Structure formats: C-alpha cells, structure tokens
Amino acid sequence: MTSIRLIPALVLGLLFTSAIEARTFKWKDEKGRTHYGETIPPEYANRSSVELDEKGRVIKSQEVLTAEERQAREAESARKRSADAAALDQRRHDRMLIQSYSSEAEIDAARERSLKQAELSLKDTQDRLKEARQKLDTRSAHVAPGRSPAPERVADETLVAQLEQELAHRQAEIAAIKERAESDKLRYRELTGKKP
What we know:
Layout: H1 2-21, E1 24-28, E2 34-37, E3 49-52, E4 58-62, H2 67-100, H3 104-141, H4 151-192
Antiparallel strand pairs: 1-2, 1-3, 3-4
C-alpha cells in the first residue's frame, strides 16, 4: 500500500527534476539562421549563444565577437567617448561664457587684451628674426667660395629657422584668438538670446 502511494510521488519528483534540468539553447549558424536545442553542436560552441529556461526567459548569454565585430564595437565605443568628451567640453565652455561675460562687449575687450599680448610677442619675434637674418647675412658675406660654412654660421641658420617657425606660430595664435572670440560671441548670443 505504501508503495502504491510512493509511485505518484516518484512520478511527480521525476517530472519536477526533468523540468529543472531541461535547458534550451539558442544560437545562430553561419548563414544567420536561429536554432534551438538542448545542446549546442560543437561547431557552434565558439559562437554567441543564449541559454533559456522552460518559459523561454534568458538565464545566461555568451557573446562571442568576430575580429571585425570587435573592431566595430571598439570604434563605436571610441566615437562615443569622443562625443561625450566634446559634449562635456562644450558644457564647460558654455558655463564659462555665461559666468565670465555679461555682454558681447566684454568678449571683445577680452579679445583685445589677448591680441595686445600676442602682438607684442609677434613683434618681439619679428625683431629677433630680423637681427638673426642680418647676422647670418654678415657671416655669409665673409665665407670664401668653395669653403664649408663656419659652425657659427650653421648655428645662425638654425636660429633663423627656429625663429621663422616661432613667427608662424605667433601669427597662427593671433588668428586663433580672433576666430575664438567671434565663435564665443556667436555662442554667447545663442545661450543668452541677447542681440548685438
């Protein structure tokens, strides 16, 4: 009699354990078709797959990316980081504009102060370059034809080249100051709604 009562309990226990152990896997083949099964075939073991419970809910997922997918994901991640950094820089710059200036005239005044300093540096570089070129010309006039230049002349040529680069840098700096001020004025108008 007890054995008859145990049979339904055993059947129920077996059904319960088989339901617990029943796992379904989902994976895609090389043609992109989705497959389901109790086990993943060995040839698809190194691909992305998902383990589902008896109600079709995801228990565990395994994502395996190809080299191209990994590169694309890394490139997208780098683009997103770059865009996020640019957005953060823009918010900081906007906050600085609003907190630092109460009108476009103040932006113009700041530009003039920056230009004055940059133009003084430019003038200093131009004067030093003029002097270095004159010194080089003087040394060049004393070199006999066919003779190699003296070490002093080589040093003068190097100095002239360095000062020419510095001059170009100073000129670019002045252009950048003017461009930045105009850009700041436009952005200030956008942020405040103030008309010039």
